[in-house]
Write a structure and sequence with these properties.
182 residues, mainly alpha, Homing Intron 3 (I-Ppo) Encoded Endonuclease, Chain A, two-stranded antiparallel ribbon, two-stranded antiparallel sheet, disordered N terminus
């Protein structure tokens, strides 16, 4: 039996697997059987580039994205799913609203950091690809990618510090207005 990598033994196999399913009829999730990235999204190689499988399927089934910034949004909230019926092009804002509905995302950068695993953070730091490209691949904002590259990460202690600072500032404002807080 030949040694098989998770990306498939022959180049193009994951792509032809997708092509064979672009008119998939089932309403169940179609789970990507090849490699996944740190966030559970199916990935495939195209030369030296890594593509997100759901994005490739979205283009195969529904045509190219209206803009390069459009995301392949899952109606099912399952990042490993490539069922063309569950994927549509959506703006980042629409996709974000979906994720809140699915409970797979919270608010803004805090949750972006929270869902990034250590391996993904390292990959982002070591990569010399454009921030926008990495943001798409890891499904986070470019702002988050830039912060990771700048060495900033989210942690709860940092959040507490920020809360303490804003509480302090609020108190100072109240005092300046002449109304003391207890
Ligand atoms: Zn699905």
């Amino acid at each position: 039996m030949p040694r098989a990598s998770r990306l498939g033994t022959s180049p193009g196999q994951p792509r032809s697997w997708l092509e064979g399913r672009r008119f998939h009829l089932s309403d169940d999730c179609l789970v990507w059987p090849f490699a996944i990235n740190a966030f559970g999204y199916g990935i495939l190689k195209a030369g030296t580039r890594t593509l997100v499988a759901s994005r490739v399927m979205c283009a195969m089934a529904h045509g190219q994205p209206p803009t390069p910034d459009h995301e392949a949004a899952h109606s099912c909230g399952n990042p490993q799913c490539v069922n063309p019926k569950h994927i549509r092009w959506a703006t980042a804002k629409e996709n974000h609203a979906d994720k809140i509905g699915h409970g797979t995302n919270g608010a803004g950068e805090k949750s972006n950091f929270a869902k990034l695993r250590a391996g993904a953070m390292l990959a982002i730091r070591e990569s010399d690809e454009p921030s926008a490209e990495l943001a798409r691949r890891f499904d986070v904002t470019t702002r988050t990618v830039r912060h990771i590259r700048g060495g900033r990460t989210w942690n709860p202690e940092h959040a507490l510090t920020l809360d303490a600072k804003s509480a302090h500032r609020a108190k100072v404002r109240e005092i300046n207005r002449g109304t003391r807080l207890t």
